[in-house]
TrEMBL record:
<feature type="transmembrane region" description="Helical">
    <location>
        <begin position="383"/>
        <end position="402"/>
    </location>
</feature>
<dbReference type="InterPro" id="IPR002293">
    <property type="entry name" value="AA/rel_permease1"/>
</dbReference>
<feature type="transmembrane region" description="Helical">
    <location>
        <begin position="414"/>
        <end position="437"/>
    </location>
</feature>
<keyword id="KW-1133">Transmembrane helix</keyword>
<keyword id="KW-0472">Membrane</keyword>
<dbReference type="Pfam" id="PF13520">
    <property type="entry name" value="AA_permease_2"/>
</dbReference>
<feature type="transmembrane region" description="Helical">
    <location>
        <begin position="45"/>
        <end position="68"/>
    </location>
</feature>
<keyword id="KW-0812">Transmembrane</keyword>
<feature type="transmembrane region" description="Helical">
    <location>
        <begin position="443"/>
        <end position="460"/>
    </location>
</feature>
<dbReference type="GO" id="GO:0016020">
    <property type="term" value="C:membrane"/>
</dbReference>
<protein>
    <submittedName>
        <fullName>Amino acid permease</fullName>
    </submittedName>
</protein>
<dbReference type="InterPro" id="IPR050598">
    <property type="entry name" value="AminoAcid_Transporter"/>
</dbReference>
<feature type="transmembrane region" description="Helical">
    <location>
        <begin position="12"/>
        <end position="33"/>
    </location>
</feature>
<feature type="transmembrane region" description="Helical">
    <location>
        <begin position="301"/>
        <end position="322"/>
    </location>
</feature>
<feature type="transmembrane region" description="Helical">
    <location>
        <begin position="146"/>
        <end position="167"/>
    </location>
</feature>
<feature type="transmembrane region" description="Helical">
    <location>
        <begin position="259"/>
        <end position="281"/>
    </location>
</feature>
<feature type="transmembrane region" description="Helical">
    <location>
        <begin position="219"/>
        <end position="239"/>
    </location>
</feature>
């Protein structure tokens, strides 16, 4: 397939609305329907709770404003991989692709799909945690075995389904994305409207508030606030995803910046409205015991039928987010293969469907594997801590490229430059530094996994150089 003006082989089939739908649909997923309960375990005061969501939105907007400049300069398949490569070279770009392969994309698929499955089982009236398949029977310690729950089984099936859909063409994936995005925005606005207009009924009391096993239960202070921000930023994550399909967007110099900025601003506004309704219905000290908080709030407002309706809407919403993630994530592996830094078979464009079929099939396998072994909180934390160093590198790329390559065409320049990029970088340093101190073991493991890609890079580089003609 011939390359276009920007060196892209994939066909450009996504218009402005579809580009915005990719961002909004990829962002509004499991996070806003589950993360408030996780955040409330670290923050027990109303002011800091609201502040966390406001700051998270501002950080996401700062990132989107910066990525809009990068997307206009490099409207290529691969997003962050391309931005980092252009500014810092192949090694850090490869490490991002490696992290996507072994941590980020599988963790995202797992967390999103599990949430969609849990809400689906709630609609059907079944316990999502019930065992579907006992792989290894548990011993005296109930956590010692390996049991696949109903939620995990359905989540794995969902990953396979969206993978097949996107394998068959980005237009079909875009239709699902556009419809599911419209439905989820309508559902959120409906919940907000009812929540602000009606007096909620009393929710049944919670007998016991669960405590996250991965850190101490005490709350308060900057350290706890920083841990809560991990969950907040998971909810906002997705604002960068439209860059991954930059090579398939029509008129990208205009549409990519619009999608980055307009889509992110819409998400931030919706999230703050939803949080207002959550807090109006559920006392903050009761929030940690309600992981499916959106359905609980709807039940308080409309009775059992409200819980069923919202649970169904959330299931559809998160399924759409999973579809968006499957649209965008495999493009990173495709871009790596284009640079001959990964299996060349993944750079093949399907002759009939015009999609990176091999990269999509690889993503299906990785997602199903991850969803079988971890829970939502672990998957979400692992994703956020793994990807934010590369967000920081991408934002720093704007600063570097302004100095090194001022001749590049920039259809959009970052508003508030250089203060907006600097603010994003400071927020990232705080987030990662706090997590490294409070969760040193998990942080070290993530770093080790990412750095394990260094020898892999040199092996691929050596293989490529040997096979290249003189």
């Amino acid at each position: 397939m011939a390359k276009d003006h920007w060196g892209e082989r994939l066909p450009r089939r996504l218009g402005t609305f579809s580009a915005i739908a990719v961002l909004v649909g990829s962002t509004i997923g499991s996070g806003i329907f589950r993360s408030p309960a996780v955040v409330a375990q670290d923050i027990n005061a109303l002011g800091p709770f609201v502040l966390a969501w406001v700051l998270g939105g501002l950080v996401a907007l700062a990132g989107a404003l910066t990525f809009a400049e990068l997307g206009g300069m490099f409207p290529r398949t691969g997003g962050i991989y391309v931005y980092v490569r252009e500014a810092f070279g192949e090694l850090p770009a490869f490490l991002f692709g490696w992290a996507e392969l072994v941590i980020l994309r599988p963790a995202a698929y797992g967390a999103i799909a599990v949430t969609s499955a849990e809400y689906t089982w709630r609609v059907l009236g079944h316990d999502a945690g019930r065992a579907l398949w006992v792989v290894i029977p548990p011993g005296p310690d109930p956590d010692s075995g390996l049991v696949i729950s109903l939620a995990q089984g359905l989540a794995a099936l969902m990953i396979v389904v969206v993978g097949i859909v996107n394998f068959r063409g980005i237009r079909l994936g875009a239709i699902i994305q556009n419809v599911s995005t419209a439905l989820k925005v309508a559902a959120i606005l409906g919940l907000v409207g009812v929540g602000l207009a009606m007096v909620p009924n009393a929710l049944p009391p919670i007998a016991e508030l669960p405590v996250r096993p991965d850190h101490a239960p005490e709350v308060g202070g900057l350290a706890a606030f920083g841990l809560a921000m991990v969950a907040v930023l998971w909810a906002y994550d997705g604002w960068s995803d439209v860059g991954f399909v930059g090579g398939e967007i029509k008129d990208p110099a205009r549409n990519l910046p619009r999608a980055f900025i307009g889509g992110t601003a819409l998400v931030v506004g919706l999230y703050l409205l939803v949080d207002m309704v959550y807090l109006r219905v559920v006392p903050l000290d009761q929030m940690p015991g309600r992981p499916l908080i959106a359905a609980d709030v709807a039940e308080a407002l409309l009775g059992p039928i409200g819980a069923v309706l919202v649970a169904g809407a959330v299931a559809i919403s998160t399924f759409g987010t999973l579809n968006g993630s499957m649209m965008t994530g495999p493009r990173v592996f495709f871009a790596m293969a284009e640079d001959d830094l990964f299996f060349r078979s993944l750079a093949k464009v399907h002759p009939k469907h015009g999609t990176p079929g091999g990269a999509i099939l690889l993503s299906i396998v990785l997602g199903v594997g991850f969803v079988s072994f971890q829970g939502f909180a672990e998957l979400a934390d692992q994703f956020v801590i793994g990807i934010w160093p590369f967000y920081a590198l991408s934002v720093a790329a704007v600063l570097v490229l302004r100095r090194r390559r001022p001749e590049l065409e920039r259809p959009y320049k970052t508003w508030g430059y250089p203060w907006v990029p600097f603010a994003f970088l400071l927020a990232t340093m705080y987030l990662l530094g706090n997590y490294a101190i409070r969760e040193s073991g998990k942080f070290a493991l993530d770093v080790a996994i990412v750095l394990s890609g260094v020898p892999v890079f040199w092996l691929w580089r050596r293989r490529r150089d040997r096979s290249s003609p003189l």
